[in-house]
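hiii, so i know i said id send this last week but things got crazy w the move. better late than never?? heres the sequnce for the chain we talked about at the cafe, plus the structure i predicted for it. fair warning i was half asleep when i ran it
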Amino acid sequence: MKRELLQKFEEIFGDSGAYGVYFAPGRVNLIGEHTDYNGGHVFPCALTIGTYAVARKREDKKLRFYSMNFEQMGIIESSIENLEKKEDNWSNYPKGVIWAMQLKGYDISSGMDILYFGNIPNGSGLSSSASLEVLTGFVLDQLFGLGISFTDLALLGQYAENKFIGVNCGIMDQFAVAMGKKDNAIFLDTADLSYEYAPLDLGGAKIVIMNTNKKRGLGDSKYNERRSECEAALADLQKVVEIKTLGDLSEEQFETYKEAIKDPVHATRAKHAVYENQRTIKAVEALKKNDLTLFGQLMNASHKSTQFDYEVTGIELDTIVEAAWKQEGVIGARMTGAGFGGCAVSIVKGEAVDSFIREVGKEYKDKIGYEASFYVVEVGNGPVIL
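okay and structure toks below
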């Protein structure tokens, strides 16, 4: 892979000057969906698939971007002095990170040539955008010796996505990408960024990602709408109970105070945020006790909550998850990511993986009309120099 990337970089940009090769992972969230912007807990892990970059500094202010995933777009030129967002252009993500870093006072004194290649399915919900953002920050940190912590790389990526791209995402995706640790998931409290690594001892079971192959774009999805619905519910609750976020509430407290939420739709959105946060806490406790059965039951309950209370699944995700639930050897399955298409995640006993993929794939194609894709994934580390 490294040799192929270097050859392509030289073909596109020429071979003069020193350049390095970098990698940042994608991520999958095992449980804790749409809780990260509600002050709740999440439980993601970094993957061994992700985004690669080859980069070198330039002597001038010019930025030249090239993606092996969008070769038809050729070299996209910009400048560190004029970072303009363009419609439907993948380069908005790295440009947004550079813009955010400049805004935060980091000295990016010259331009660069940078080539990207990602082996995360685009639009799948495995955080190809967060991987690209964190990777770009990591490359700039290395090229310019900025000394940025991995936590701050995550925050810069989130800031770029919120303010430059225009998607009001929480911190989970960028944090999971930046802070990944091999064979561990990250139990993160998004209210204060306190976290702990939890070993993913699945007793021979495998994490199987099920890609519906229905692509989604967060900016034009109902993601921002869900966020504003939760904010409205929180504002109503704050009139009767002293809380900073929905994640501050237990299930019992929510049931006590929920009548304060004026809009019934807002109440169901808030119910998901509160109950999903508690499910995530319980799931991590179950994992620590090697109770995979309970972990799987909580994953299944999580899907039903995103389906009925949060309404972010859709026929593709529901079909693939419900097919997964029927299979021998499945421990749990649920949608993962923002929803509205993208991926679901399942934990499947090792000996059942092949039949699981075959049977779920058949049922999905029969009902939806096109094929799903499946990935048996490994849990990996955060950004590295290759």
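btw The radius of gyration is 21 Å. thought thatd interest u
miss u guys!!
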